[in-house]
Amino acid sequence: MKSLGEQLASDILAAEVGIKAKLDELKKTHEILKNAAEKIAKKPWPFSDTRKLLDELAARSNGLERVEVQQLHERLKKQLDDAAKTYERAFVDGLISEARKTHIPAGSASDAYFLGPFQLTLDFVKETGLLRYADQPIAAPMALDATKLVAAASEHAGALLVAPTDLAKLANDFEEAMRVALTRSRKPIEGRELRCALPDLHREMTAIRQDRGRTITSNSFRDYPLARFVVELKTLVQSEQNMTASKRFRLETAVLENTRNSKKSVLIPTDLQRGYAGGTYFQALVLVNEA
To answer: What is the pTM of this model?
Structure first.
């Protein structure tokens, strides 16, 4: 049987353990706040680090320091929301200024930003910018760096939007791709009209663009972006050469249920130099043989 002294000491030690646990928890919160403050102080627009801190504070809102944590969380969130509006205006102004240096159009249209021929989606939560053409991303999201975004837009525009010059070869490539796609789906490849779904056509055109003398590997694969496919397709279909040919290509407008479905249709901009400004969804390419 424990003596009175042992019983009292046991009770005291139990309380000490509980207090120590609370002190350890307070120390953890102290370290989180200290480390976050050091990181945040080094950045003029520390959205990412502050949001990370907000998530951590939310997870600790039931601790001993819950009142202080909840109050800090509310203050930081309000400051961040207010600053985001200022930051967006400042960033866009800086982006437009940077774009002017290289004579690239930039600004906003229809409640969206554009940079060169691309729609620019700015995510101030993730602090990224995404270039899109014909409603499709043309590259992975990039950090919110105006200089790098302008350089990327210039590079992609030069690679994707230059007009094809050998339209005769391009027409042969599209016809070959149509016939391959139709053969794969066991559809007729003879007759006055051949019809091929655009997503299937893009897949076969990608295959045609490979070096047929080499085994296709991750290193040798030649990407054929959908944006480039759209540019070449529209340029060919609208060309005088196609309009006067005995074999003539035409685009088939997508039915309502196929629009905005990348497996069924493709958006082709009204103006290829303004891929952000809307267009028409088409679902198939038709080759008409008038001979």
So the answer is: 0.76
